[in-house]
Structure prediction request, 392 residues.
Amino acid sequence: MSACLLGEGCRYDGGSRPSAAVCRLAGRTNAHPLCPEAAAGLKIPRPPAERVGGRVLLRDGTDVTDAFVSGAQACLDVARASGAPLAVLKARSPSCGVGLVYDGTYSGGLTRGNGVFAELLEEEGVCMVTEEVVESCRPSVEHPVAVVLGTGLGHLHSLVHSVRRIDYHDIDGFPEGARPIPGHSFEATVGTVDDVPVVVYPGRIHLYQGYSALEVTALVRHAHRLGCRDIVFACATGAIPGNAHKGLGILTDHINLTGANPLAGSSELRGLETPFVGMTDAYSPYLRAIARGVADDLGIAVEEGVYAGLLGPSFETPAEVRMLRGMGVSYVGMSTVCEVIAARALGMNVLGLTLAANYAGDGLVTHQSVVEEAQLHAQDFESLVRGVLRLL
Ligand code: HPA
Prediction:
């Protein structure tokens, strides 16, 4: 973590204010405060420095690139030794900026690019976020975390210290006659899990039941109206043999093969400025890194991979499984993709978790066997979700 975010006075203006959300995260993890500029022995507080081309210049034109590079290298050694899966870096700084940095005009203007240290971490494959990402994911009573549970994973619902229950049929856009399939229940609970404000939706409806993409995303729009900024989707899937194993997985991306999209068609959704929604990093790299860290710390076996959403309800043919394997898919299921699209359109941070209950194409799979397999992993799943909530 950039040391200045934890309150160390190592920025040029000396006025580094700690980020409460980053300090909280640091207090709950094994965080390493790093400052490439302090590591380089630069004068602290230093005068303003910005990136100009590939270099770093002070306002008076002094080229301080070599010092920035040597400090960044020293910090990289510490980061490597720590094995940390996540770097939380000061936004826009010439050493730590991620994606955007000050543009060399010393006027507050910004340009695309990374700071010197962030460039090195990127080559290393470390997930990097700014303090703004950590702050935007921080839950509160006004911004609870939404958790949508899938087949056999509904038990988490019982852990909620409930302050209010909401019948799905009182939710705008939720279809009137819808009844839960086995393993799902249709009452949302607003409350807390381990003191973290949450709204848990213990069941969902599916396209294969004949509902539209707009209807299957009613819960997402509801969560957004309640103020949720983070949304966790949990779903049962089949693992694609050769690409994933049975058990818990973190979704890294998806392929929407349902033929449906909640942003297509009627404009009533949506109160959206545009239906043309970017889907890069739809599954928040930050939330994924947090989930990975929690799983590693707790010794829970978790894989990662791409989810393919199919319409269902028939399971996949062997030819479809071969196709999905060739496409790089790890998990196949019949939900989630439309919900993730709707959540991203509403600007929500998405974490996708799955329980691969069977190998896709296994002729013996039934809905009941999926429920039973999910229950075997319920304890690990709950520990994973609780661990993630604790760090947000
Ligand atoms: N295919 C699709 N959806 C699923 C599967 C599967 O094998 N298992 C659980 N949900």
Notes: The chain has a mean pLDDT of 92. The chain has two domains: 3-136, 145-391.
